[in-house]
Amino acid sequence: MRALKSQLQPHFLFNTINNLYALARMKSEKTAPVALQLANLLRFVLYEARKPHIPIEMEVKILRDYIALEQLRFDDERLQLETIIELDDPQQPVAPLLLLPLVENAFKHGVGELRYNAWVQVFVRLKDGHLRMEVANSVISRPEPNPEGIGIANVQRQLELLYPGRSRLRLYNGEVQTPETGEHYRAILEIDFK
Fold this sequence. Notes:
Elements: H1 2-25, H2 31-48, E1 54-55, H3 56-71, E2 79-87, E3 93-94, H4 100-108, E4 118-127, E5 130-138, H5 149-162, E6 167-178, E7 182-192
Parallel strand pairs: 2-4
Antiparallel strand pairs: 1-3, 4-5, 5-7, 6-7
Helix pairs in contact: 1-2, 1-5, 2-3, 3-4
């Protein structure tokens, strides 16, 4: 497990620093707030992510912080974002940085490559010890064959190690198309904590 976390943390930080660099090059007024968000995320990675488990509300806070960080790169016309989070037990222990790669993936391999009509949906629901997280995002008309990369692979491995037989991760890469959303990528994570 230590090896998986050591791979995930640099991957996540690398992507975030690249975002900050892009804003700095544009001399954006958003650079200072992004640097502060990055400091908060670094604090989490350095101190909280080393723990075997954290309350799910802490993991959700990092999701919200990461989404806020990403939103700074987009204007309201370029990105539509919908986030719904429902936790009936905010103290439910969960492995740190387990949920974040799904959201990171939506921005890195999805909307980050689109110039318009970009959207991301993040739904997290914990009810009666059952977690369901669904992340969907718009993609370029023909998505990459395997846009997941190291982050999703690490999530799959962590699920196998920490929640064997009690978890499932399903990925849909452009296979789902609706009139409302068009072609999109969808990741669905489920964990039974009981």
